User: What shape does this take?
Amino acid sequence: MNKNRLEAFSDGVLAIIITIMVLELKVPHGSSLQALTPLIPVFMSYVLSFIFVGIYWNNHHHMMQLAKKVNGKVLWANLHLLFWLSLFPFATAWMGENHYETWPVVMYGCVMFMAAMAYFILESALKKLHGPDSEFANTFGTTIKDTVSCLAYVVAIGGSFITPWVGIACYVFIAIIWFIPERRVEKKIA
Amino acid sequence: MNKNRLEAFSDGVLAIIITIMVLELKVPHGSSLQALTPLIPVFMSYVLSFIFVGIYWNNHHHMMQLAKKVNGKVLWANLHLLFWLSLFPFATAWMGENHYETWPVVMYGCVMFMAAMAYFILESALKKLHGPDSEFANTFGTTIKDTVSCLAYVVAIGGSFITPWVGIACYVFIAIIWFIPERRVEKKIA
Amino acid sequence: MNKNRLEAFSDGVLAIIITIMVLELKVPHGSSLQALTPLIPVFMSYVLSFIFVGIYWNNHHHMMQLAKKVNGKVLWANLHLLFWLSLFPFATAWMGENHYETWPVVMYGCVMFMAAMAYFILESALKKLHGPDSEFANTFGTTIKDTVSCLAYVVAIGGSFITPWVGIACYVFIAIIWFIPERRVEKKIA
Amino acid sequence: MNKNRLEAFSDGVLAIIITIMVLELKVPHGSSLQALTPLIPVFMSYVLSFIFVGIYWNNHHHMMQLAKKVNGKVLWANLHLLFWLSLFPFATAWMGENHYETWPVVMYGCVMFMAAMAYFILESALKKLHGPDSEFANTFGTTIKDTVSCLAYVVAIGGSFITPWVGIACYVFIAIIWFIPERRVEKKIA
Assistant: This one.
């Protein structure tokens, strides 16, 4: 079964998710510079989410480059990932418009965490399909980065009940560690 | 005639349909967890429709993998399918925002039923084009699943006038039986 | 220069145009069947415009199948076509929400006419690029259908000042004559 | 690493950006010709931004045609470009709805300038990847057009504080000089 349409469909959904998030930057009525001030937190959460979608797109791109085939389970695992990613615009807007209060920050973390789990499930489905001795299985293992970001999400969600800035700090931290694409993969597909 | 653009265009429309549906999850004004409560029925109908769009995308993907060619009739049969699918966001939102009352649930069933008919017409157009002895015609026949879901739609639409929960139960039932992709197809294109 | 990205980009824009038009079907507040009544004219104009976008997509698909190459002029001629098509959702919504009054019907005709002109310019640019003896130039000439629809647009725009139903009738007529894809092209690319 | 998905994803984002901009043309309530009058400045800024997105798409298309490969840095440089382009709908709408007042015109210029810088960074990343002796590096150098438009942005942003029409004039001027695709590139990929 061909992986091209899975890539094309995922690209389409991710492209729309990114552009839907920007719609939350509602055009202000005034024309002064001050009219933009209330948009600053919305803009900041847009930037954060844009980077996260970028990370998912980059890693999805890398992973699918090494995938040789897909099956029905992979298609659904991919749709499952897209489902959680499709909630990013909602979670981003709720957080941005409420100036980073507790529940929106917690919700944002939950959606991010579920997307991370969904990505992990997709990777596992591809690994199982390619077999334990495949190049795919050898390239993608659980890394320290996976474990650290998983822990960071837990800290973010729990810590946000003390102050939401714990959550925000964790999300920025996770974005930074994932910003760099997988070197081991880049070498393989150079 | 080339099938690639038909696939690409359908992927585009389906990707946008999925993401438009999520726009109905309007960002609440409050930041408490209770502010999300009124969104629960909207969210549930989003999940249901997401799964249906996923089923259509998966089956469309499978069907087009075995199609060797397309013609003018197939292009229009495909556009006809996309037309009914494009009404999913409307039907989903109307049902979700009215807490599953009779008419919205009936309307949802009608749109789903028309999409199922359109899919059947597309399959027939492809079968006719490939000829009765083609691999395509041998792989895709009317199955018991087709008949059962057709009946389930009729029960859903009729039963919703007694209580809309009959309709909802039928839609969930149809989603479950279609969740599993066509094994006979997967074998062929393995 | 490669035609694939031109096709992909056009597919993307057309897919979004179709789905944006459906957004004008605003979800009604009530849950009775009567709540849908005010949507009927909006729905009818959506159906009409969906068919027009479908016609453009089909013909664009056919034309690009026979195109062997593109150049800078073709890229801009294509963007020019997409510009007028991008105004379809606006023209469709204005017409549907105003129950087919004079100016909205005239405006709809003007946008359609400009799109038709833009399509003609794109065809000419491709013809010039491929040369007068190419298969492309031999396949696509000005047909009686082109002349008739051009006249029909003029009648539609002028006649709408008597009664908008002249315009509507002309649009339906044009949709019908273009519904059938170009047989001469289908034969060539069979 | 394959450049196809980078192209497909960029096409998707650009297609959506164009179509989101048209959503700012909000359907007026009246049906007279006068009801369209307040839309004229919004429409004019839509036309301007459509041309700019068209220019970016065309040049991106040309540049990627000559690119033989991409790497992680190129993926992020491309996402960075898409980020600034994704702010076009906001900047366009703010400018159009405020009838070209100072701050919106300045903001529009800033977003355009950042997009131009991002494009330059993407070009540099591709140049570095292909090496100084590659066909890519030989084709794309800093041209007089780059320098002139950079200066024009500075004049536009500064001059808008005297009168916003300086800004508008500069944007129109930049659009005109970039309208013509790169002849040196077209020759190479003829």
Observations:
- The interface with chain C takes residues 7-8, 11-12, 14-16, 18-19, 22-23, 25, 27-28, 30-33, 35-36, 47, 50, 54, 57-58, 61, 64-65, 179-181, 186, 189-190 of chain D (CB under 8 Å).
- Chain D has one domain: 4-188.
- Residues 102-130 of chain D form the longest helix (29 residues).
